[in-house]
Amino acid sequence: MVDSSKKDPFQGLYEVFLLVFDNSRGKIPLFIYPDDYIKNDKEKMRPINIHTIWWMDMKEQIVMDNVDLEYGEKIYLARKFLTLSKRDKKETQNDNYSFETIILILALPIDIYIFGGELLNQLTINIIKNFEGELYLLIESEIAKEEIIKTSRIKEIMGKGDKIKERIKDIVSVTCKDFFSSVMKKSDTKSIKEQKAFSYLYLKGFDISSISNKEDSEAFSNIRLFDTKINSEKEFILKNVLAISNIKINEISNELEIIVRNNTEEELTNIFVRIIQLKDFFESEIMNHTIDKWFPNEELLFISPILPNINEYILFIKDDNYPFLSKKIDLDISNLNKV
Known about the structure:
Elements: E1 15-22, E2 26-33, H1 42-50, E3 63-71, E4 74-84, E5 99-109, H2 116-131, H3 135-144, H4 152-184, H5 192-203, H6 233-236, E6 242-250, E7 255-262, E8 268-279, E9 282-294, E10 299-305, E11 312-318, E12 323-330, E13 337-338
Helix pairs in contact: 2-4, 3-4
């Protein structure tokens, strides 16, 4: 039995979604962590509903490599696998009635995307290992909850499913806690992506005291960030690389004006800036610009036309390897400045 009595210090950092694909009902949420209510939140479920994983065939694969979707300020990593089914052949989406298609999605902040693949792999292994022969009971339970009249048989099915859901919750919580605990105990890294990820975790204030001991209590402060010669705790407290100084709507020219600041003392080179308009889950690019040099503490103004009947835009800024900034801009938000 998994020991989940200790609070997960990283809860709130990630989200986990487990779904089944059904021919007649579409995507059925089976399990959402940490908050099951998310399935009723249309905005939070948008990236789940549009993930490209839905349009890829399993064919003969038992487990399909993960597919990533960048949406807003998060990365959604998804993986499909097959599991035992005892439903009637007509009710499943497979020609072979003995299998169900399960989708596992992990959502993380873009800043710690580098950890996503390994964590998703561990979650997949642990869920398959512990629940491969029982997931069909959870599927039956969630479908039973749609019934208007809850007979004693239906209540029994729902009860079995709820017990499985609690066990999955324990597995997911412990898997993620152990994973991030292991990651945070690294005393040194030369990977710039990992350095930035550690900086994000630290600046967000995630409590690591519960995973440290006397022998490695200093390990976290010894991680080198950006400059591989720096290893002091004082230098560890870094600002975000880029920061949005202001967003405003120019009603005269009908343009969106975004001011972004290089929030570091370093010169940034070869930076790619994109502005994308978003409508009905579909994206189209309306600005693509490359910045050869972005000087320390310099503010740059990016201007994008406002398209008719389009209220949602996404700003992406990255270098050759790493996304520095991803911001969704909703023109309907009342606190946007207008000039």
